[in-house]
Amino acid sequence: MIAAHLPALQVVVPLILAPMCIVFRSATIGWQLAVIGSWSSFAIALGILQQVTGDGVIVYELGDWAAPWGIEYRIDNLGAFVLVIVTAIASVVVAYAKTSIEREIPPARRYLFHCMYLLCLSGLLGMTVTGDTFNLFVFLEISSLSTYVLISFGRDRRALTAAYRYLIMGTVGATFYIIGVGMMYMMTGTLNMADLAQKIPEVADTRTIQVALAFLTVGLALKIAMFPLHLWLPNAYCYAPSAVTVFLAATATKVAIYAFIRIVFTVFGTVQVFETFNVQGLLMILAIAGMFAGSAVAIYQTNVKRLMAYSSVAQIGYIMLGVSFATVSGLTGGIIHLFNHALTKGGIFMALGCIAYRLGSVNLDDMAGIGRKMPATMLALVIGGLSLIGVPLTAGFISKWYLIRAALETGSWPIAVLVLLSSLLAVIYVWRIVETAYFRQPSRAVLEMSPAPLSLLIPTWVLIGGAVYFGIDATTTIDVAAAAAEQLIGGSR
User: Fold this and answer.
1) Of 57, 189, 76, residue with least CA distance to 133
2) DSSP 3-state assignment of 73?
3) First to last CA, the chain
């Protein structure tokens, strides 16, 4: 009986627990509620993935109102995979957050952190399970509003500026998205994604639908932080509390990419949007530009959190490049990189959080010689960097292998070369960190440091260990990603 209601429970569990943090106003109880919410959501996501892989697409009608009159949750292979990614990361982050926020957030605000964290998780999960374009907007706003608050908890006053900038750009993105939804509704009379897919071909040639697609693309591109609409991301990642940076880098942009894929391949899939509206070339150019621009700017950063934030812009470019191929291999590569980058970048930002916990800074000059005092933390950071480069036996290698294969399958060998060249830029900024940590003389502050506490190191190594494991044995992730890609490409033909 409970198994039939897992899609609703996926969203409801963290959504109910969030206001309970306000009721108790206790940091300890708030953390316990966050643990219950995260791990329960993870267990539910695994159950949903098992159902989807065994029985096919799950369609859950809220209140037994049939779509398109009622709201339905629709979960396919990709949706189930993203649910597992988000909840798995959330479960590790909540273990990491307990110690991390004790150093970064005043005691009086910690219960608010847990409340906002659960609300953000609920919003992200809702975006993933919903089959309704307007409902997606509602959950998008729930996750976004809570994210603005989470960023503002940072110790540096610039966190408030970063949160405000994200609020402005996020509001613009949400406005563009809802205008696009309104235009589609005006032409079709429905908001349900599956129903839209049936009705849009009849009006695909109208200027209204074409403008709607443009508004939807720009709105979601802002949320994705896709180049050149990424300006909110570096400050948000740099000045937010460490646990918040980890959570945002590993989940928020990934769910926004999922929403984009859902719009393109489900809502507009029946009109083959890449060929009909000439989207493919533009998306590919912006993805490649993001790969190079993000990595090039990262090379010159002195704050490692900001460096890795610009690296995320480049990695988002890789994911969107896979999407732009609009082939099974390309989309498989993009989906795999969505998973692999969540593990890798989550682990890297956790390692930086460990350094910030002991050193109080993540500036390169302050980290001179830190590899000798925090060997486990720096090893995790280096392995994460190797995964960003795409070194064999790391998860990043699997992603880039599939992207290069997709490029060669379509005869686009110059794109394959560009993927390799952009990876060389990652070598440069990763080497800057290695050179500083291992080959420079440590300062007095570094010499007096002690290793990071196990409560921070263990979650860090869980994610970095995952990045290594799925670089050695990627059978499961490739199978799920390939099944999702085939389902999406097949539905768009």
Assistant:
1) 189
2) strand
3) 36
